[in-house]
Specification:
single chain, about 425 residues, mainly beta, Methylamine Dehydrogenase, Chain H, four-stranded antiparallel β-sheet, WD40_repeat_dom_sf, WD40/YVTN_repeat-like_dom_sf, Telomerase Cajal body protein 1, WD40_rpt
Length: about 425
Amino acid sequence: MVEEEEVQHSLPEEATEAGKPEYSWPLLNFHVLPQRIYHFHHHFTTPTNPNNFLKGVKWSPDGSCFLTSSDDNTLRLFTLPESEGSIPLDPCSLASENDSFAATLVMGEGESVYDFCWYPYMSASDPVTNVFATTTRDHPIHLWDATSGQLRCTYRAYDAMDEITAAFSIAFNPAGTKIFAGYNKCIRVFDLHRPGRDFESYSTVKDNKEGQMGIISAMAFSPSHTGMLAMGSYSQSTAIYREDNMELLYVLHGHEGGITHVQFSRDGNYLYTGGRKDPYIFCWDVRKTVDCVYKSSENTNQRILFDIEPSGQHLGTGGQDGLVHIYDLKTGQWVSCFQAASDTVNGFSFHPFLPLAVSSSGHRRFVIPDDGNEDLCLSGNENCASVWRFSFGSTMDDVTDDGIIHQSQSEYGNME
């Protein structure tokens, strides 16, 4: 269990948008099945929790590694083995019983991890900026050192009884100077350089009972409209706020379940929202928010983390069928899909500048022992993380008239 004492380490200095690296993202051919080049399953299997499942995965902003969260209250960091982020040349054998390589860091939390996020200007070559934040049940927000795996400091919110209350969602502001944290009907904002219990609190519900009700479960900042952020709640609503004073601009309704993920388009003009027990991802035009632009199907009964590839033209999302679906963001139309696992794909993240993506799979199961077999474990194609490499180009040569990719299953591994 992580100690609650604050750890004194240097924190990232204030950054600017000019400090972010610029990359050109090549057009990818999503009509050709991607190649699975790395695979991890045994990392997430322990004697005490043989059916431990993943809950999400995210690439680091510099693309050097990715971070996973799993049901055993543990975060694992996997670093790409090639220097300078080059694309792997020798894909792993999918028939191998072993994981592709070992996790670089393993960090255990005391309770269930609600959310995690990278510092926006993170660089593995700069230890000061190489950090990420987590929020955990019954714990304060933790800032972790992604170089050493040590806890740097904590950000603590207290309720009316002076007891620590946990945030359900967290995000760094674009400048990298503050941590925004979502709670029940309120937002608390922490200064990154002032760990401890100092924060600013803003209610999401007004005196006239208008505003955004429920637990703030997801948030995202606009990449182009400076000072604008979106927040989703378990009350099935999404709201747009000003960053500086948390002024409510408008509230979006339409989902059937609690919001679990929100993300802006690359140009900041559109907002994509997804919810639990909701069959659609909604696309909203933040410049005219009376109605949603379109809805894209999403097969989910739990929290699903989708992502937009860096060119801003396509969105990738998983589902309960083990497939990753690719959608055209201009039209909302389905483009293609591929089998990423034999279980629910709950996380999908595009690499920031290489033609790679990482997926995570699994969900909670209540296993009833059969014939005295109490050690029932799932296969290596469930409760796993996989790294995928996409092809370049945009040809339709590998697609049949009915829109199905006609490429042999063996080309990317038998998932049965």
